[in-house]
C-alpha cells in the first residue's frame, strides 16, 4: 500500500482529484464512488475543475435499504447534491435500496459491476474498519448484498438524521470481493477517530475483523491520510 499524508481535507480532496485526473488521462472510464463526509472535499475539487465527466460511468458503493432516491438521507440524493447535479456522468449507478426484493437489487448491481468494471475505486473507512457497509465479520470475498449495520455505524451515521431511530438498519453494499476488483483503490481517511482502523488496515493481519485489511491483498492501493488518521502508524 502506498501512503500519502496530507495537511487537511482540502489537500486530501485535491490529492485524490489529481489521481482521478491522471487515471482518466490514461483511459479510466469507470469511477467507484463513496458517500459520507470523507469524499466531500474530493467532490468539491471535481466540481470546481474543468474536467469533463460526461463520458464516465460511476458506480456507488452502497445505499440504505428502504430509502428512495428522493429521500434526502439516501445516498442517491447525497451524490446528486454533491456531484452529479454539477458534474453529470454518462451514467451513474447506485444500488436500489428502494427495491423490496433486496436480493434481486443486489444481483442486478453485481451484474452492472460486471458490465462496468471499476477503474478507480474511492473508499472511506469506518471507525471499525468497514469499507462500503461491509462490517467486521464480513466475507472478504463477498459480492454485493444486503447487510446489517452495526450499532457503531448506526451511531456514527446518526449525526445525519434527526433521531438515531431514523437511521436505517440495513443497506445494500458492494461486497469486499466486488471492491477488490477495482483496478486502483484510493482509500481516504481524516481524523484521530480513524487512526486505530488505519493502523489495523495497514499493519494488522488480514482479518474479517477489520474488513479494510483485505486491501493488503490488492496490488494498487493508495491511502490518503491526514496526520491524525496516520498518527498510530509505526
Ligand atoms: C459510504 C461508505 C462508508 C463510509 C464510512 C466513512 O458510502 O461506504 O464506508 O466511507 O462509513 O464515513 P465518513 O466518511 O462519513 O467518516
TrEMBL record:
UniProt key word Cell inner membrane: no
Stretches assigned to the Glucosamine/galactosamine-6-phosphate isomerase domain: 21-220
Pathway: Amino-sugar metabolism; N-acetylneuraminate degradation; D-fructose 6-phosphate from N-acetylneuraminate: step 5/5
Keywords: Carbohydrate metabolism, Hydrolase
This enzyme's EC code(s): 3.5.99.6
Active site: 62 (proton acceptor), 128 (for ring-opening step), 130 (proton acceptor), 135 (for ring-opening step)
InterPro entries named among the record's database cross-references: Glc/Gal-6P_isomerase, Glucosamine6P_isomerase, Glucosamine6P_isomerase_CS, NagB/RpiA_transferase-like
Catalytic activity: alpha-D-glucosamine 6-phosphate + H2O = beta-D-fructose 6-phosphate + NH4(+)
Gene3D superfamilies: 3.40.50.1360
UniProt keyword Hydrolase present: yes
Record function comment: Catalyzes the reversible isomerization-deamination of glucosamine 6-phosphate (GlcN6P) to form fructose 6-phosphate (Fru6P) and ammonium ion.
Family assignment from sequence similarity: Belongs to the glucosamine/galactosamine-6-phosphate isomerase family. NagB subfamily.
Protein name as it appears in the record: Glucosamine-6-phosphate deaminase
Protein species of origin: Lapidilactobacillus achengensis
Amino acid at each position: 500500500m502506498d501512503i500519502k499524508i496530507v495537511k487537511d481535507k482540502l489537500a486530501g480532496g485535491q490529492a485524490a482529484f489529481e489521481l482521478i485526473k491522471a487515471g482518466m488521462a490514461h483511459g479510466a472510464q469507470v469511477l467507484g464512488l463513496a458517500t459520507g463526509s470523507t469524499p466531500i472535499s474530493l467532490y468539491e475539487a471535481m466540481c470546481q475543475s474543468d474536467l469533463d465527466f460526461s463520458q464516465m460511468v460511476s458506480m456507488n458503493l452502497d445505499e440504505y435499504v428502504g430509502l428512495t432516491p428522493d429521500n434526502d438521507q439516501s445516498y442517491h440524493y447525497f451524490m446528486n447534491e454533491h456531484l452529479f447535479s454539477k458534474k453529470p456522468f454518462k451514467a451513474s449507478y447506485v444500488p436500489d435500496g428502494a427495491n423490496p426484493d433486496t436480493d434481486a437489487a443486489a444481483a442486478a448491481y453485481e451484474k452492472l459491476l460486471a458490465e462496468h468494471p471499476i477503474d478507480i475505486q474511492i473508499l472511506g473507512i469506518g471507525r471499525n474498519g468497514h469499507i462500503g457497509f461491509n462490517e467486521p465479520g464480513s466475507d472478504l470475498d463477498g459480492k454485493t448484498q444486503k447487510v446489517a449495520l452495526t450499532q457503531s455505524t448506526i451511531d456514527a451515521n446518526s449525526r445525519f438524521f434527526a433521531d438515531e431511530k431514523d437511521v436505517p438498519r440495513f443497506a445494500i453494499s458492494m461486497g469486499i470481493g466486488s471492491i477488490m476488483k477495482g483496478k486502483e483503490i484510493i482509500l481516504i481517511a481524516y481524523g484521530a477517530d480513524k487512526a486505530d482502523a488505519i493502523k489495523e488496515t495497514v499493519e494488522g493481519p488480514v482479518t474479517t475483523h477489520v474488513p479494510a485489511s483485505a486491501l493488503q491483498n490488492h496490488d494498487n492501493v493508495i491511502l490518503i491520510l491526514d496526520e491524525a488518521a496516520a498518527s498510530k502508524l509505526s
